[in-house]
Amino acid sequence: MTTLVTHIARLVTNDPSLGDGTPLGLIQDAAVVIDGDRVAWVGETSKAPATDNRVDAEGRAGLPGFVDSHSHLVFAGDRTAEFNARMSGRPYSAGGIRTTVAATRAATDAELAANLDRYLAEALRQGTTTMETKSGYGLTAADESRALRVAAARTDEVTYLGAHIVAPEYADDPGAYVDLVTGPILDACAPHARWVDVFCERGAFDGDQARAVLTAGARKGLLPRIHANQLTYGPGVQLAVELGAASADHCTHLSDEDVDALAQGDTVATLLPGAEFSTRAEWPDARRLLDAGATVALASDCNPGSSFTSSVPFCVALAVRDMGMTPDEAVWAATAGGAAALRRTDVGRISPGARADLVLLDAPSHVHLAYRPGVPLVSAVWRAGHREV
Ligand SMILES: [Zn+2]
């Protein structure tokens, strides 16, 4: 079964060999042929081949589905009171995670699954067609592995984050918890995950502990990524580049050496402006990273504590308004950048052979994602060739 989508006013392909030759590979009055779950053809509407079905985009803009490479959606409970207190003047610290750990441990499998389904559906309505998500609110072998099983039933991009914080039971002996995270908990979790992650931050895990977590995960076949340099300067970014991590996430407090390392290595700098927005923190400097030559991704960091938004368009608007990105750079970062952060070549682009993840906007250009912040512009979503919205 083939479907032709015609009259896309401006299509972002993220394939520089198509269209206008820019990184976004823009095509005017574009058409896309979807064959099964793949993109079969991309070009101008006037040159489109015949297909079984036809959909007229009527001058809407088109772009690849968002690739949200960082979220924490296997959780239970609510932290409205913490947010409310923070907006009344109390600073954010890593410790609030314990509230969600207690609620998540107390939840049933069905409750965790229903909560995850709800947020994945919410993200899909806003154009996200690939979503990474993590454990990290269980912190025992049984609770972490069940979080990963729930996630793996719903997304391919699953991350073991047993090293989110030190489990409350080990508050006085963090070394013993690192032994568990790199030993029995890892053994229980590795079969259910693709990635290993660690929160390398004051109040969570230091550089040596983070190195132990990531290298132990790698020995079990998991690929490293890291929460780095969010609240303070620290060793996380350098460790990520040294270990060849796919992504260093947050990157809010970077030294010149950190920026150079990201520019020269193949670790993606994933920026999560929802976190800075929701904690009233200093923005990461995307302009500095881009000017140095680093690859930048944008993701939601959707989690109940520090960034409870599933909206990638909102993150695009923040990145343009407050982080020095152009609209083109921000849209690339939220699609192709996210794919790079997940080492995926089949998503984040609209070109022949890619997975057919296509979003149409009720707007003539992708620039409207930043120009019209907060407006629900997503009007159609195909994921793997299925019309979902
Ligand atoms: Zn995170």
UniProtKB/TrEMBL annotation:
Which coenzymes or cofactors are required? Zn(2+); Fe(3+)
Give the principal location in a single coarse category: cytoplasm
Q: Which UniProt keywords are present, listed alphabetically? A: Cytoplasm, Histidine metabolism, Hydrolase, Iron, Metal-binding, Zinc
The entry's free-text remark on the cofactor is: Binds 1 zinc or iron ion per subunit.
Q: What is its EC number?
A: 3.5.2.7
Which pathway is recorded for this entry? Amino-acid degradation; L-histidine degradation into L-glutamate; N-formimidoyl-L-glutamate from L-histidine: step 3/3
Superkingdom of the source species: Bacteria
Q: Where does 4-imidazolone-5-propanoate bind?
A: R79, Y137, H164, Q230, S306
Which InterPro entries does the record match to this protein? Amidohydro-rel, HutI, Metal-dep_hydrolase_composite, Metal_Hydrolase
Q: Which residues form the Amidohydrolase-related domain?
A: 248-363
Catalysis: reaction(s) = 4-imidazolone-5-propanoate + H2O = N-formimidoyl-L-glutamate
Query: Where on this chain does Fe(3+) bind?
Result: H70, H72, H227, D301
Residues bound to Zn(2+) are: H70, H72, H227, D301
> Which residues participate in N-formimidoyl-L-glutamate binding?
Y137, N303, G305
Tell where it localizes: Cytoplasm
What is the role of the protein in this entry? Catalyzes the hydrolytic cleavage of the carbon-nitrogen bond in imidazolone-5-propanoate to yield N-formimidoyl-L-glutamate. It is the third step in the universal histidine degradation pathway.
Similarity comment: Belongs to the metallo-dependent hydrolases superfamily. HutI family.
Supply the name of the protein.
Answer: Imidazolonepropionase
Organism source for this protein?
Streptomyces tremellae
Name of encoding gene = hutI
